[in-house]
Amino acid sequence: MRAVSAAKERGRPSDRGRFLRIDDTIATTGLSRATVYRYIKEGDFPKQRQLTRRCVGWWESDVLAWLEARTGAPGAA
Q1: Are 68 and 76 in contact (CB under 8 A)?
Q2: Crossing angle of helices 22-29/60-71, nearest 10°?
């Protein structure tokens, strides 16, 4: 876990990636909250992961890959 805390000190996520909460997911994709959840319901959005009993998140690389596939542009975020 030392590498993770060192990465946080440098102001970037760990090399393994990070989870995005809903507000970060919205900011990354440019979609509204309702649209994100509609895509989830339709099965057209990366799987959300249960982080705690009341908290979910999306693996950042999954969201970025989804964006790239939809836009065709590398690093679409």
Answers
A1: yes
A2: 20
Whole-model pTM over 0.85: no
In tens, the pLDDT along 20-32 reads: 999 999 999 999 9
CB distance 49 to 60 below 8 Å:
no
* Helical ranges in 1-77 per DSSP H: 2-9, 22-29, 33-42, 60-71
Bridge partners of 19, per DSSP, are 59
User: Quick one: tokens of 52?
Assistant: 């705690």
Nearest-angstrom CA–CA distance, 32 and 24: 11
CA-closest candidate to residue 51, choices 20, 12, 15, 9: 20
